[in-house]
Write a structure and sequence with these properties.
The chain folds into two domains: 30 residues; 86 residues, Immunoglobulins (Immunoglobulin-like), CATH 2.60.40.10. The strands form two sheets. A five-stranded mixed beta sheet has the order 2-9-8-4-5, with no helix packed on it. It starts with 9 loop residues before the first helix and ends with a strand. It is globular, with a radius of gyration of 21 Å. By secondary structure, the protein is of the alpha+beta class. The mean pLDDT is 86. Helix content is 17%, strand content 45%.
Protein backbone atom coordinates (compact mmCIF):
# COMPACT_ATOMS: atom_id res chain seq x y z
CA UNK A 1 0.00 0.00 0.00
CA UNK A 2 1.33 3.42 -0.88
CA UNK A 3 1.02 6.64 1.06
CA UNK A 4 -0.21 9.93 -0.45
CA UNK A 5 3.31 10.75 -1.66
CA UNK A 6 3.58 7.46 -3.63
CA UNK A 7 6.00 5.64 -1.30
CA UNK A 8 5.20 2.37 0.48
CA UNK A 9 3.38 2.74 3.79
CA UNK A 10 6.10 2.05 6.39
CA UNK A 11 3.66 1.45 9.23
CA UNK A 12 2.00 -1.38 7.32
CA UNK A 13 5.37 -2.93 6.42
CA UNK A 14 6.55 -2.85 10.04
CA UNK A 15 3.28 -4.39 11.22
CA UNK A 16 3.59 -7.25 8.73
CA UNK A 17 7.16 -7.98 9.85
CA UNK A 18 6.13 -7.92 13.52
CA UNK A 19 3.30 -10.38 12.86
CA UNK A 20 5.65 -12.72 10.99
CA UNK A 21 8.21 -12.57 13.81
CA UNK A 22 5.51 -13.33 16.40
CA UNK A 23 4.28 -16.33 14.37
CA UNK A 24 7.81 -17.76 14.15
CA UNK A 25 8.34 -17.24 17.89
CA UNK A 26 5.14 -19.11 18.78
CA UNK A 27 6.04 -21.97 16.46
CA UNK A 28 9.56 -22.24 17.88
CA UNK A 29 8.25 -22.53 21.45
CA UNK A 30 6.97 -26.09 21.02
CA UNK A 31 9.86 -28.37 21.83
CA UNK A 32 10.82 -31.01 19.30
CA UNK A 33 10.44 -34.58 20.64
CA UNK A 34 13.53 -36.76 20.46
CA UNK A 35 13.76 -40.52 21.06
CA UNK A 36 17.23 -41.75 22.02
CA UNK A 37 16.94 -45.41 23.11
CA UNK A 38 14.62 -48.39 23.56
CA UNK A 39 14.67 -50.96 26.37
CA UNK A 40 14.55 -53.78 25.57
CA UNK A 41 15.65 -53.41 21.96
CA UNK A 42 13.65 -56.46 20.86
CA UNK A 43 10.42 -58.20 21.74
CA UNK A 44 7.35 -60.11 20.59
CA UNK A 45 3.83 -58.91 19.84
CA UNK A 46 2.27 -57.81 23.15
CA UNK A 47 5.58 -57.14 24.91
CA UNK A 48 6.18 -53.72 26.49
CA UNK A 49 9.00 -51.47 25.26
CA UNK A 50 10.19 -48.30 27.03
CA UNK A 51 11.54 -45.55 24.81
CA UNK A 52 13.65 -42.83 26.44
CA UNK A 53 14.32 -39.34 25.17
CA UNK A 54 13.25 -35.73 25.53
CA UNK A 55 9.94 -33.89 25.14
CA UNK A 56 7.93 -37.11 24.91
CA UNK A 57 4.92 -36.07 27.01
CA UNK A 58 1.36 -35.74 25.65
CA UNK A 59 1.80 -32.03 24.93
CA UNK A 60 4.54 -32.90 22.40
CA UNK A 61 3.79 -36.43 21.14
CA UNK A 62 0.30 -37.43 19.97
CA UNK A 63 0.91 -40.92 18.55
CA UNK A 64 3.76 -43.42 18.19
CA UNK A 65 4.27 -45.87 15.34
CA UNK A 66 6.50 -48.77 14.33
CA UNK A 67 7.49 -48.41 10.67
CA UNK A 68 9.48 -50.25 8.04
CA UNK A 69 9.58 -47.09 5.92
CA UNK A 70 6.51 -48.09 3.93
CA UNK A 71 4.02 -49.50 6.43
CA UNK A 72 3.22 -47.80 9.74
CA UNK A 73 1.57 -49.56 12.70
CA UNK A 74 0.29 -47.40 15.56
CA UNK A 75 1.32 -48.69 18.99
CA UNK A 76 -0.78 -48.72 22.16
CA UNK A 77 0.83 -46.23 24.57
CA UNK A 78 0.66 -47.58 28.13
CA UNK A 79 2.43 -44.72 29.92
CA UNK A 80 3.87 -41.39 28.79
CA UNK A 81 6.08 -38.76 30.46
CA UNK A 82 8.48 -36.03 29.34
CA UNK A 83 11.41 -38.46 29.32
CA UNK A 84 9.83 -41.79 28.29
CA UNK A 85 7.02 -43.58 26.49
CA UNK A 86 6.02 -47.12 27.41
CA UNK A 87 4.09 -49.02 24.70
CA UNK A 88 2.91 -52.50 23.71
CA UNK A 89 4.16 -54.01 20.47
CA UNK A 90 1.17 -54.30 18.10
CA UNK A 91 0.58 -57.14 15.67
CA UNK A 92 3.27 -56.52 13.04
CA UNK A 93 5.54 -58.62 10.88
CA UNK A 94 8.81 -59.69 12.51
CA UNK A 95 11.87 -57.64 11.61
CA UNK A 96 13.79 -54.50 12.50
CA UNK A 97 11.44 -51.51 12.66
CA UNK A 98 12.01 -47.84 13.35
CA UNK A 99 9.99 -45.77 15.78
CA UNK A 100 8.08 -42.78 14.44
CA UNK A 101 5.70 -40.23 15.94
CA UNK A 102 3.24 -37.48 15.24
CA UNK A 103 3.54 -34.24 17.15
CA UNK A 104 0.62 -32.95 19.21
CA UNK A 105 -1.08 -29.85 17.87
CA UNK A 106 0.61 -30.05 14.48
CA UNK A 107 -0.75 -31.16 11.11
CA UNK A 108 -0.50 -34.92 10.68
CA UNK A 109 3.10 -35.64 9.77
CA UNK A 110 4.84 -38.86 10.78
CA UNK A 111 8.42 -38.16 11.88
CA UNK A 112 10.80 -41.12 11.89
CA UNK A 113 13.17 -41.37 14.85
CA UNK A 114 16.68 -42.93 14.81
CA UNK A 115 15.63 -45.59 17.38
CA UNK A 116 14.88 -49.09 16.10
CA UNK A 117 13.49 -52.25 17.70
CA UNK A 118 13.56 -55.83 16.50
CA UNK A 119 10.23 -57.65 16.46
CA UNK A 120 10.66 -61.38 17.06
CA UNK A 121 8.34 -64.21 15.96
Amino acid sequence: MKSKDGYPNMRLSVAVWLLLAAAFAVQAQQAMPRMTSADPQSGKVGDVIVVSGENLDKTCVAKVYLTDGTNDAQVDIVEQSASSIKFKIPKVKPGRLALALTMAGKPLQIIEMPVKVTIEE
